[in-house]
Design brief:
InterPro entries: Ankyrin_rpt, Ankyrin_rpt-contain_sf. Keywords: ANK repeat, Repeat, Ubl conjugation pathway. It holds the Pfam family Ank_2. It is a single chain. Among the domains are: 183 residues, no CATH class; 68 residues, Alpha Horseshoe (Serine Threonine Protein Phosphatase 5, Tetratricopeptide repeat), CATH 1.25.40; 94 residues, no CATH class. The chain is 55% helix and 3% strand. It has 35 helices and six strands. It is flat.
C-alpha cells in the first residue's frame, strides 16, 4: 500500500522548502511558496525552526547568516508581520563560536567550535559581515543589543571579524560598546585579541573603557600583548592603558614574554612604569619561551635574550641584580640555572642545556600555579618521545600532569597522551615500568572523581555538554590504561606493592560510566568500543579477555546494566552478532570474555529492555555452548523469573529494597508489571519451574503472586547470606 502524507507531513515539507529557499537565496521561489498563504500559515512557515546539520533556526536567520540580501528584503518587505526579528536560533560558523569565545591563555579556556546559540538574524548578519542585511534589519527595527545565550551582541560579533563598517553603523544606531559577554569580555578586548587596529581605534575614540577587566582579571592590553599585536598595544598605551595584573598575577609584559612576542616585549619593557628587575625577568622569560615554544622555537633567539638579561643584571651603571635561582627540579634533569655571563655563554652550543635552562627559568618566574607553565614541558616531552627517549618524556609529562592537577586544570589530553606513549612503548618492545602506568591510573581515577563532582554541581560558566564529553573521554582513556596494565601484570617481575597499587587504582574506577550507562567492563567486551588510533590501537583492541579479567578482579560489577539494561554478557554476545565481517577474528576474544564473565557468576537469565537474555543473544555464535553450559538452576533466579513471567505487580514495600534490582534484572517493566523473555522461559520451563515446585512441594500451577513474593523474600534473604547463590 502506498504511504499517504498527513497534514503535518505536508506542513513540514513546505516549511523545509521555505527554509532552504531563504538559505540559498532563491528569492522568487521563496515568494512563490508564501504567496497567497493566509497569515497563520505564513506565521508558522517563517517563525518555526528548521533543523539541518546542527543548525536550528528560521528562514530569516538562515538568509541573514548566508548573506542572501534578496531573500531578506522579500521577507521584511512582503511578510512583516508576521516574520519576527528577535527570534533566536542556533547557527554554524566556519571557524569559531563567536558568542562562546573567551580568552584561553590567561586562565579562561578558549574553545574552537562551530555553533552559536541564541543568535538573532542581526547577530548572524553582523558576525558574517553582511552590511547590507545589517542595515535592512536595523531599519526594520531589530534590537541592536540583542545578545546570544552567552551575552554576545551583534557589535561584538562584528568586532571579532574586524568589520569596521558594521561596527560604525551599529554604534551610530545605539549599539552599546560597553556591553560584555558572560565572561565580561568587552568588544574592545575581542578586537584587541584579533588585532583589528582600526576597530580598536574607533572603539577607543568612542569612549570604550581601556582598563576594563574580564572575569580573569585581564584587560585589552593583556589580550593584544599575548597575541603579539604591537600596533594595538601602542594604541592602547596612547589611550593611557595601565599595566595591570590578571588573576594569575601576570602583567601584559609577562604575557607577551611567555608567548615569545619579542616586539611587544621591547615596547612594554621600555615603559617608565616597568622596573629594571621586571624588564630583566621579561627578557629571561622571553628567551626561555623561545627555547621550548612549539610555534616559535628558536635557540638563537633563546640564547640572545637569556644573554641580554644576564648582561643587564651585571650592568654596573645601575648596580648589580644577582639572580636567585630556584631549587633544581628532577624532571628538568636537576638543572641549575646559570647565574653569571660565563655560564650563559657556555649554553651557546648546547641545545639540551638551553632547553633545560628555559624550562627552569619559566618555572621560577611564572610559578607552579601558572596555567601556561605546562605547555612547553609537554612539548619538550613530545620531542623526547619522537627521539625514543621515553624515560625523559615520561618524566616531563608526569611533571606537567602534576602541575595541572595541582591547579585543578583539566588533564583529559594529558591522560590520553600517556595511554598513547605507553602503547607505543609496548608495541615497539621498550620496557615500560608498571609504576609509570600506576601513577597515571591514579591520576585518571582522581580526574574522574573531580569530573563527577563537576557534573553533579556545575558552575554557572560551565558548559555541561563539554563537561560530559570530557568525562567520557577520560572513561575511555581509563579503559586504555587498564588494558595496558593488564598486559604488564602478565609479567612475573612486578613487585607486590606496585601491583597492589595498580589494583587499588582500578578499583577506584569501578563506578565510571558513559552517559549510556556502560561501565568499563561493558566497553572491554564490546567490539564497537572506539579506540584512539595514534599508537593506542596497536595495543588496545576490544573485546579483550585480559582487560575484562583484571576489571572483574578489581571489583567492577559483573552484572551491571547500562541504560538499555544490558549486562556486559549481553554486550559481548550482541556486538559479535552485529559485526558479521569480523566474526572469525573475534571468535577467540568473545569466547574468552564470555568465559571470564561466566566464571564470575554473570547471569545468563538477565533480561534487557528488549526482553532479550544472553542465551538468546548467543544463539548461532561461538559462545552459545558456553552460555548453555551455565544454565544451572538457581532457585532465586527462577523465583524472580517466574514472578516476571506471570506479570505480578507488587508494592515497593512488599519486597526488600535490596531485591528490586535483582527482580528488574530478570524481567522488563510493562503495563502489567514485569515480563520475561519467552524464549528463555520455554527453554527452562521443564527444568527450573519443576525444580522450584518440587522444592516447595506445590504444583507449579498453584503459585500466586503473594506466594511468589513471600518465596522470593525468604529465598533471596538466604541467598544474600550465601546459602543459595
Amino acid at each position: 500500500m502506498e504511504d499517504k502524507l498527513t497534514l503535518d507531513d505536508i506542513s513540514s515539507t513546505l516549511r523545509e522548502r521555505v527554509f532552504f529557499a531563504a538559505r540559498d537565496g532563491m528569492s522568487l521561489t521563496l515568494y512563490a511558496l508564501l504567496y497567497e498563504k493566509n497569515t497563520d500559515d505564513i506565521d508558522d512557515l517563517l517563525n518555526s525552526d528548521v533543523c539541518c546539520d546542527g543548525v536550528k533556526c528560521t528562514p530569516l536567520i538562515a538568509a541573514s547568516r548566508h548573506g542572501r540580501e534578496g531573500a531578506v528584503r522579500i521577507l521584511l518587505e512582503k511578510f512583516r508581520p508576521p516574520v519576527r526579528l528577535e527570534t533566536e536560533g542556533t547557527v554554524k560558523f566556519d571557524e569559531y563560536v563567536i558568542e562562546d569565545y573567551h580568552h584561553g591563555a590567561l586562565g579562561y579556556a578558549s574553545r574552537t567550535a562551530y555553533y552559536a546559540r541564541g543568535a538573532t538574524a542581526l547577530w548572524c548578519a553582523a558576525g558574517a559581515g553582511h552590511l547590507g542585511i545589517v542595515k535592512r534589519l536595523v531599519r526594520a527595527g531589530a534590537n541592536v543589543n540583542h545578545a546570544t545565550k552567552t551575552l554576545s551582541t551583534p557589535l561584538r560579533a562584528a568586532c571579532f571579524d574586524g568589520r569596521l563598517d558594521i561596527v560604525k553603523y551599529l554604534v551610530r544606531h545605539g549599539a552599546d560598546i560597553h556591553k560584555a559577554n558572560k565572561y565580561n569580555n568587552t568588544c574592545l578586548m575581542i578586537a584587541a585579541y584579533k588585532g583589528h587596529l582600526d576597530v580598536v581605534q574607533f572603539l577607543l575614540d568612542s569612549g570604550a573603557r581601556v582598563d576594563e577587566r574580564a572575569l580573569c582579571g585581564a584587560t585589552a592590553l593583556h589580550f593584544a600583548s599575548e597575541c603579539g599585536h604591537a600596533a594595538v598595544v601602542c594604541a592602547l598605551i596612547d589611550h593611557n592603558a595601565k599595566i595591570l595584573t590578571n588573576e594569575n598575577g601576570m602583567t601584559p609584559l609577562q604575557c607577551a614574554a611567555e608567548r615569545a612576542r619579542a616586539s611587544v616585549v621591547e615596547i612594554l619593557a621600555a615603559r617608565p612604569e616597568v622596573s629594571r628587575a621586571q624588564s630583566i625577568e621579561a627578557y629571561e622569560l622571553l628567551g626561555a619561551s623561545f627555547a621550548n615554544d612549539k610555534e616559535y622555537y628558536c635557540l638563537r633567539m633563546a640564547y640572545t635574550y637569556l644573554h641580554r638579561a644576564m648582561a643587564m643584571r651585571y650592568d654596573t651603571r645601575y648596580g648589580l641584580l644577582l639572580k636567585k635561582p630556584a631549587d633544581p627540579i628532577p624532571a628538568y634533569d636537576n638543572w641549575r640555572e646559570s647565574t653569571t655571563l660565563e655560564e650563559v655563554e657556555r649554553l651557546h652550543s648546547n641545545a639540551h642545556a638551553l632547553h633545560m635552562e628555559g624550562l627552569a627559568v619559566r618555572e621560577r618566574i611564572l610559578g607552579r600555579a601558572c596555567p601556561d607553565l605546562p605547555h612547553p614541558v609537554v612539548f619538550r616531552g613530545a620531542v623526547f618521545a619522537d627521539e625514543a627517549r621515553f624515560d625523559r618524556c615520561l618524566a616531563l609529562w608526569r611533571h606537567a600532569l602534576a602541575l595541572r592537577h595541582q591547579n585543578q586544570v583539566s588533564v583529559v589530553k594529558d591522560l590520553l597522551r600517556f595511554a598513547q606513549v605507553f602503547s607505543q612503548m609496548i608495541h615497539i618492545g621498550i620496557e615500560l615500568p608498571l609504576s609509570q602506568v600506576c601513577y597515571v591510573l591514579e591520576a585518571c581515577a582522581e580526574e574522574l572523581r573531580r569530573g563527577t563532582k563537576r557534573l553533579e554541581k556545575p558552575q554557572v560558566n560551565h558548559d555541561l555538554d563539554a563537561l560530559t564529553e570530557e568525562y567520557e573521554s577520560n572513561v575511555r582513556t581509563a579503559l586504555y590504561l587498564v588494558a595496558v596494565a593488564a598486559r604488564l601484570l602478565e609479567n612475573s617481575g612486578n613487585d607486590e606493592e606496585t601491583t597492589s597499587a595498580v589494583r587499588r587504582a582500578i578499583f577506584r574506577l569501578r563506578n565510571a560510566r558513559l552517559r549510556s550507562g556502560q561501565t568499563l567492563l561493558h566497553l572491554a567486551v564490546d567490539r564497537r568500543t572506539p579506540v584512539d588510533d595514534f599508537h593506542t590501537s596497536d595495543v588496545c583492541q576490544f573485546p579483550c579477555m585480559r582487560t575484562s579479567r583484571l576489571l572483574l578482579e578489581c571489583g567492577v560489577e559483573v552484572d551491571a546494566s547500562d541504560d538499555s539494561r544490558r549486562t556486559p554478557l549481553h554486550v559481548a554476545l550482541i556486538s559479535y552478532q552485529l559485526i558479521p565481517d569480523e566474526r572469525e577474528l573475534l571468535r577467540e576474544a568473545v569466547c574468552g570474555c564470555v568465559c571470564e564473565l561466566l566464571s564470575r557468576g554473570a547471569h545468563v537469565d538477565a533480561v534487557d529492555a528488549a526482553g532479550i537474555t544472553p542465551l538468546v543473544a548467543a544463539i548461532g555464535g561461538p559462545a552459545e555452548a558456553l552460555v548453555r553450559s551455565a544454565l544451572s538452576p538457581r532457585l532465586c533466579c527462577l523465583a524472580a523469573a517466574a514472578l516476571a513471567r506471570h506479570g505480578a505487580a507488587y508494592a515497593p514495600d512488599q519486597v526488600p529494597r535490596d531485591l528490586h534490582a535483582f527482580l528488574a534484572m530478570h524481567g522488563v517493566h510493562s503495563e502489567n508489571g514485569y515480563r520475561v523473555d519467552t524464549h528463555y522461559e520455554e527453554s527452562l520451563k521443564s527444568q527450573r519451574c519443576a525444580s522450584l515446585a518440587a522444592q516447595l512441594k506445590l504444583p507449579y500451577t498453584s503459585f500466586s503472586a503473594g506466594l511468589f513474593l513471600s518465596t522470593i523474600h525468604i529465598i533471596m534473604r538466604n541467598a544474600m547470606l550465601g546459602q543459595l547463590m
